[in-house]
User: Fold this.
Amino acid sequence: MALHKPVSDEVLDQYRLNNTKIRVVRDADPANDVVGRVVAWDEQHVLIRKQNRNVRKLLRTYHFEPASEERTSPFTNA
Assistant:
């Protein structure tokens, strides 16, 4: 599993304040992405509220991007 530099507090705060729907890319398979809104975070984890109101606790080292943008995978060279 390729982990990246943790997403910054400033980026997470912007996503939370703007109520931006985000995509968390966890691996090369788009079916495993988590889409939702940032609720809270600490040094290692981010809480994402999905559309069905379930909350997922994810590592900050995953790839975060706005869901409105085309999916970019850090796991492919294409």
